[in-house]
Amino acid sequence: MSKRREVQKRLSMLHEIDGIMVAMKNLALLEVHKLEAFLATQRRAVASIEKAAQDFLGFYPQTTARAEGGAQQLLLAIGSERGFCGDFNEALLEPIDLALKDNGTLLVAVGRRLAAKLQDGRYPEVLDDTGGSQPFSKPGSASKIAAFVEGPSVAEEIQAALVRVAGILSELQKHPEAAWRLSVLYHDDKSGTVRTRQLLPLATPVEKPAYPHAPMLNLEPSQFLSQLTDQYFYAALHEVFYASLMAENRKRLEHMESAIRRLEKDEAKLRQRSNALRQEEIIEEIEIIMLSVEALSG
């Protein structure tokens, strides 16, 4: 009886875990459907701004000459804030290691899970005791980790995460020696791979402009480029955060489905074990009854 009770207790616990995982899977699925609409709109907006930027820079390439010369590399790596997403964060480690081999590169890590991976024997200075979002070292110091930023868990938290990232970048730009070339490392849900994408400064087009005449501007070219860059940076950051969160939730869906399948197999085995133990108990009870009848008959 005690063995069967242990099996039943274990089976009940697995059933509860299964219910929790199904709920997490459903939440990830809802998040994926929600992000699909956001991403489609955001990608159209970014493509429109990029097209305008390429048209402008085709006629005013001199406006980016100062920004591109002698800039240091700042890498924004977007990981996950929550777990249960497979190798989502592990896939970012190798590109980060390659990028940080360059002494002029600094890293801003987004997401507690990614920061924990970086802290685990790689870059122990990545986290402070409070888990806050302030910089851990100034540019030019021995540390290659510029800051850790708390990441978003759902789409509604992306705006707050971007405000934190903007605060860190503003702090880095206060140093007079800092002229950054900003790239972002993230999971691209469209290609299903880890992608490194340069956001700033805007790249000068290689091909000739499609139009014969320069665009008419109401602002000075340098002022126009500054405002266009701000708008592009804001829109592109939204796009990469949406894409990263989309890829994270798809990874979580795969992870949950695999875990649920394993749990169902374990539950099936335990049910068979419980039935076998119950059959043994019934046989023992029948034997006891028969022996009792024989004893009474004697």
Could you explain how this protein is built, in words?
By secondary structure, the chain is an alpha/beta fold. Mean pLDDT is 83; it is low at 126-142. It has a five-stranded mixed beta sheet with strand order 3-2-1-4-5, sandwiched between helices. The chain has helices at 2-59, 65-68, 90-100, 112-119, 158-173, 221-297; strands spanning 72-78, 105-110, 145-149, 180-188, 193-200. α1 packs antiparallel against α6. The chain has one domain (26-202, 218-253): 3-Layer(aba) Sandwich (Pyruvate Kinase, Chain: A, domain 1).
The overall pLDDT, averaged over residues, is 83
Which sheet architecture does the biggest sheet show? Answer: 5 strands, mixed
Strand adjacency order, main sheet = 3-2-1-4-5
How many domains make up the 3D coordinates? 1
Low-confidence stretches: 126-142
The whole-angstrom Rg is 29 Å
How much helical structure, as a percent, in the residues?
55-70%
Query: What is the helix tally?
Result: 6
Under CATH, the homologous superfamily reads: ATP synthase, F1 complex, gamma subunit
CATH topology: Pyruvate Kinase, Chain: A, domain 1
CATH class: Alpha Beta
Care to count the β-strands? 5
Distance between the termini: 30 Å
Q: Which sequence of SSEs, written as H and E, runs from N to C?
A: HHEHEHEHEEH
Identify the overall geometry.
elongated
> Percent of residues in beta strands?
5-15%
User: What's the CATH architecture?
Assistant: 3-Layer(aba) Sandwich
Task: Tell me the structural class.
Answer: alpha/beta
